[in-house]
Amino acid sequence: MNAQKFFTTDPVRPVRGLLYLAFWLGILWLLLGNLITFIPGAEQSWFTFTGALLLAGLFIPRWRYRAASIVLVAVCVFAAFTGHRHGVEYRLHLQRHGFAPAGEDSATR
Questions:
Q1: Rounded to whole angstroms, how far apart are CA atoms 71 and 83?
Q2: What's the gap between Cα 107 and its chain centre?
Q3: What does the buried/exposed string (b/e) look like for 9-19 if buried means 16 or more CB atoms within 10 Å of the residue's CB?
Q4: Quick one: pLDDT at residue 21?
Q5: Residues 6 or more apart from 100 whose CB is under 8 A from it?
Q6: What is the rounded distance in angstroms from the CA atom of residue 89 to the CA atom of residue 83?
Q7: What per-residue confidence (pLDDT) applies to 8?
Q8: How far is CA 70 from the centre of its chain?
C-alpha cells in the first residue's frame, strides 16, 4: 500500500470543493445584485459580502480563477462604494425634506 496517496503537500486540496462553491456563489450573487433593486445604501452590504465570497478564487490553484477573482472583487469594491454613496445621498435627501432616517428620533436633530 502506498502511503504517499494519503499525504499531500497541497494544503488547499481538502477544501478545494468549498472554494469552487464559494467562488461560483459569488458570481451568482454578483449577477443577482445587478438585477435587484435595493433600498439606497443596501448595495454596500450586498457587494461587500459578494466580494468576500469571490476572494475564494484567489486560493484556487488555476490562474484563470485567480485573474477572474481579482477583476470581480474590484467590480464588487466599486459597486459597494457606489452603494455607500447612494445611501449617503438618500439620507441627505431625507434630512432636507424633514424625514429622519430610521434609527434617529427628532430629538437628536
A1: 18
A2: 36
A3: eeeeeeeeeeb
A4: 94
A5: 94, 106, 109
A6: 10
A7: 61
A8: 12
Contact 52, 22 (CB under 8 A): no
Residue-level pLDDT at 5: 62
Cα–Cα distances in Å, from 74 out to 15, 60, 78, 106?
24, 18, 6, 39
CB-based contact 66:25 (threshold 8 Å): no
CB 56 within 8 A of CB 23: yes
Quote the cell numbers at residue 26: 459569488
For residue 6, the model assigns a pLDDT of 62
Cell of 51: 466580494
Rounded average pLDDT per 10-residue block, the chain, 109 residues? 61 81 96 89 93 94 94 97 93 87 53
Is the alpha carbon torsion for 72, 78, 81, 85 positive or negative? negative
- Write down the pTM of the prediction: 0.76
Q: Are 43 and 79 in contact (CB under 8 A)?
A: yes
